[in-house]
Structure to design on (906 residues):
């Protein structure tokens, strides 16, 4: 190494020039500040997102503990024991009502003629009375006076009533269920109506009697059916009696427990305040107050004893009822008076043995049930994620099962996507490939404008327009073959799906159009040069090449649809139950509730920190995770099938 | 304009006194060109001289550009004016294939890339398609390399392979004329050499018209060369003769590189 004299340290000229005029603000140079400003802005979003997640998790995390505690009381107080019988038994009401409907629809064709005559006559009578109200009221009032007014006072009133009544009877519009003679007789009899006579005119009596006779005749004709219906209705009476008594007992225990825990919570707060209080007097008062509210947790072992003592009695009733249900299935006539009745009977006949079996299966559980079996955390998690009922503010027991909401959300989202995908993708293909510049100028802003419609306004449209439209269409006779037609509810999942599809179209359209736009021109050149027509180029090259982008557009549309709240809250019908899929595709015309809707609807009404409140936060977390997963999938799809940069 | 054409061989592509314009701007002036069957014709000239435009006139690729039109004269392929009303563009492009500057295989399998032309021309018979694919890949010297991975994705091939695949795709429909627009400009020297060899072989079956920036390439691959400058055809003749004894001063200065 050769020692060379160190070169003189001299700042390069460039630095000197740049530093000239450079200022510092509070010790930092402006460039750094500007950079810091932008960095801070981008980090704000990240911090906010992190805070949201922490908050959600904090509120939701308590749920498992709280729900576990509730389920523990549910078991220890014995509500669970009663539900073993009560749950399957609740089906009986539905079956019974089906049978009643079968009876009605069978009997109806026979009696409807006489019933219509009777009802029409009564209606006419009421009309006459209504029209002569002004004349009748003074007379009625005079008649009630004590002592009775003199005849001279009453007569003018009577004459007024008679005149008015005759006039009304003459003007009466008699429907054509009556012959001309009958109409005349009705007019004559009704012309004599007066508040002084409470007996029905003879013709009305006759019509009523005719109806009674016919009704009896009809009921006789379908005697076995009527009997079966009555039997099934009465069959569970004894079982219900026992069960209701037991339910009352266990509910009392549960209420005692709930009261105890509420008071205990208050007491703990008082004690905490006491430990912090500085003034000894205040401290003593607080402790005294706390002691006053001290209660004991109910003795579950003791209070369940009277229930368990009747265990065998209950089992006996269950077995008896199950046998009765089986017998009813056998005795049920095969055919009703109409096709609908026969259909109902078939349904009930198929359901009854299953119903009886469910009850019998419960017997074993009744025997082995123990109140002190611990509730594991997995049971709680399962009760939330796989629970099939979301039941709140119940006088019996709240359940937070999330499946009905999930099913509602998923079905609605799928309907929306199925509708929106062809719409938006086809529109994107047309706009990108076929539309003239002028058409593009119209189509793009219009589709994007849909996004500007507030979702609550779309909700209006769903309620007032789409609902009626779907219902009317479903009642067109020659469309009756479509599944689910004619529909029962105006507000249903299909309706919500239609509107959500409309909301998803702009997002999906824009993204799909971008995807098509990003297809390299080189592919189009190559296809053209090979002699492909425009259509061939579009459908064999451009669309396949843009498919990943289109798939991502669909997924992002799905994300948008899952998270949408207002429309589903207004339009989906908000029935918290798993839709009945047994009817096939017609299920889409049933109402449902959704993950988003339930939060929006219930969060404002629950007390902060309660199990219900926390359950809603859990739903929020799940929703968040679903959205995250959908977005992640969309990104993954795009990355996986990314085209090489042209 | 000096040309040395061979009257014994009928021309397959004839450009007659053609003016070509983009809107009001005339890009090509009075071009006369007769391309001989089953020979390689190179179009050379400085950037912006209209080589590519001329090439794209032959399969009407300029049709898509708004305002682009032939202002005067005509282009004939196999004796037929390609702008006649009864000319089917699809059929014309079946006769006149094209390979682009940058390789542009579709994001499909190798097999589907080659079969694409047949499919868009309505060929449904799998047997016929398969034979055509094999023949095209063989002619493009790709069959031995790729025969075991025909279902692989075309974008997984190397740059040179992709360009040869594009050539195979263009010849699968057995065109009469193959247009090549600087087919080697994005390739490395070895891949370029392979393509040049390929062009030699293709000339046995096809008429090739190639635009190139590289004069050595023009010498190596072409039988005839046309030199364009500022939208005019300056000189057209046998490559060997033109590079040895250019008749025009402009051609000479361009070939010598003393062009200003």
């Amino acid at each position: 190494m050769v020692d060379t004299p160190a070169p003189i340290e001299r700042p390069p000229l460039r630095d000197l020039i740049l530093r000239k005029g450079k200022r510092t603000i509070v010790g930092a140079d402006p460039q750094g500040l500007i950079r810091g400003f932008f960095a801070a802005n981008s980090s704000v979003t990240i911090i906010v997102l992190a805070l949201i997640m922490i908050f959600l998790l904090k509120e939701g995390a308590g749920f498992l503990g709280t729900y576990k505690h509730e389920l523990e009381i549910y078991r220890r107080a014995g509500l669970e024991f009663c539900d073993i019988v009560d749950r399957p038994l609740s089906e009986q009401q539905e079956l019974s009502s089906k049978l009643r409907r079968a009876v009605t629809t069978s009997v109806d064709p026979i009696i409807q003629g006489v019933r219509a005559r009777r009802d029409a006559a009564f209606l006419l009578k009421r009309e006459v009375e209504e029209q002569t109200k002004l004349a009748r009221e003074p007379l009625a009032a005079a008649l009630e006076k004590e002592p009775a007014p003199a005849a001279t006072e009453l007569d003018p009133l009577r004459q007024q009533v008679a005149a008015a009544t005759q006039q009304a009877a003459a003007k009466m519009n008699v429907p054509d269920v009556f012959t001309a003679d009958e109409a005349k007789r009705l007019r004559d009899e009704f012309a004599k109506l007066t508040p002084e006579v409470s007996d029905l005119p003879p013709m009305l009596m006759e019509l009523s009697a005719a109806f009674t006779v016919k009704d009896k005749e009809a009921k006789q004709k379908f005697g076995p059916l009527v009997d079966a219906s009555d039997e099934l209705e009465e069959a569970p009476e004894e079982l219900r009696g026992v069960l209701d008594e037991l339910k009352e007992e266990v509910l009392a225990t549960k209420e005692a427990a709930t009261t105890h825990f509420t008071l205990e919570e208050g007491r703990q707060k008082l004690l905490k305040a006491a430990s912090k209080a500085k003034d000894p007097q205040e401290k003593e008062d607080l402790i005294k107050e706390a002691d006053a509210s001290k209660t004991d947790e109910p003795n579950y072992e003791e209070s369940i004893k009277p229930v368990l003592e009747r265990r065998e009695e209950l089992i006996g009733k269950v077995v008896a009822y199950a046998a009765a249900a089986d017998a009813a299935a056998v005795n049920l006539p095969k055919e009703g008076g109409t096709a609908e009745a026969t259909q109902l009977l078939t349904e009930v006949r198929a359901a009854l043995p299953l119903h009886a079996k469910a009850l019998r299966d419960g017997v074993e559980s009744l025997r082995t049930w123990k109140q002190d079996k611990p509730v594991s955390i997995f049971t709680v998690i399962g009760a939330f994620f796989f629970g099939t009922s979301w039941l709140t503010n119940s006088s019996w027991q709240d359940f937070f099962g999330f499946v009905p909401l999930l099913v509602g959300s998923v079905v609605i989202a799928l309907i929306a996507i199925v509708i929106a995908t062809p719409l938006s993708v086809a529109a994107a293909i047309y706009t990108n490939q076929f539309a003239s510049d002028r058409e593009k100028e119209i189509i793009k802003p219009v589709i994007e404008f849909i996004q500007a419609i507030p979702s609550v306004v779309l909700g209006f449209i769903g309620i007032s327009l789409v609902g009626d439209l779907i219902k009317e269409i479903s009642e067109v006779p020659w469309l009756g073959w479509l599944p689910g037609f004619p529909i029962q509810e105006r507000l249903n999942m299909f309706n919500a799906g239609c509107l959500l599809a409309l909301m998803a179209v702009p997002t999906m359209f824009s993204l799909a159009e971008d995807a098509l736009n990003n297809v390299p021109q080189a592919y189009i050149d190559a296809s053209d040069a090979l002699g492909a027509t425009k259509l061939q180029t579009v459908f064999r090259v451009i669309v396949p090449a843009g498919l990943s982008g289109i798939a991502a557009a669909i997924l992002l549309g799905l994300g948008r649809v899952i998270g949408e709240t207002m429309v589903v809250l207004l339009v989906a019908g908000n029935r918290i139950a798993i839709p009945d899929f047994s009817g096939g595709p017609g299920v889409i015309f049933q109402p449902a509730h959704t993950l988003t809707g339930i939060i929006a609807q219930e969060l404002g009404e629950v007390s902060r920190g309660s199990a219900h409140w926390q359950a809603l936060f859990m739903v929020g977390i799940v929703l968040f995770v679903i959205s995250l997963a959908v977005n992640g999938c969309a990104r993954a799809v795009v990355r996986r099938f990314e085209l090489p940069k042209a | 304009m000096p040309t040395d054409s061979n009257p014994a061989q009928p021309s397959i592509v004839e450009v007659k006194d053609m003016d070509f314009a983009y809107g009001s701007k005339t890009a090509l002036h009075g071009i006369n060109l007769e391309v001989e069957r089953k020979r390689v014709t190179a179009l050379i000239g400085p950037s912006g001289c209209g080589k590519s435009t001329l090439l794209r006139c032959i399969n009407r690729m300029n049709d898509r550009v708004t305002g682009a039109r032939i202002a005067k004269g005509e282009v004939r392929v196999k004796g037929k004016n390609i702008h006649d009303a009864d000319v089917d563009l699809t059929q014309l492009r079946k006769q006149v294939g094209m390979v682009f500057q940058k390789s542009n295989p579709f994001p499909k399998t190798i097999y589907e890339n080659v079969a694409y032309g047949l499919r868009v021309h309505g060929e449904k018979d799998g047997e016929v398609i398969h034979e055509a694919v094999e023949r095209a890949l063989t002619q493009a010297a790709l069959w031995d390399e790729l025969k075991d991975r025909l279902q692989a994705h075309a974008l997984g091939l190397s740059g040179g392979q992709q360009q040869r695949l594009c050539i195979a795709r263009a010849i699968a429909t057995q065109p009469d004329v193959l247009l090549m627009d600087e087919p080697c400009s994005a390739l490395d020297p070895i891949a370029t050499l392979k393509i040049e060899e390929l062009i030699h072989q293709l000339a046995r079956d096809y008429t090739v018209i190639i635009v190139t920036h590289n004069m050595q390439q023009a010498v190596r691959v072409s039988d005839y060369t046309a030199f364009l400058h500022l939208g005019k055809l300056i000189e057209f003749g046998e490559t060997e003769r033109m590079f040895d004894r250019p008749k025009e001063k402009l051609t000479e200065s361009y070939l010598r590189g003393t062009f200003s």
Summary: The radius of gyration of chain B is 18 Å. The interface with chain A takes residues 59, 61, 64, 89-94, 97-98, 100, 102, 104-108, 116-117, 119-121, 155, 166, 169-170, 173 of chain B (CB under 8 Å). Residues 11-255 of chain B form a domain with the Rossmann fold fold (CATH 3.40.50.300). Chain B has one domain: 11-255.
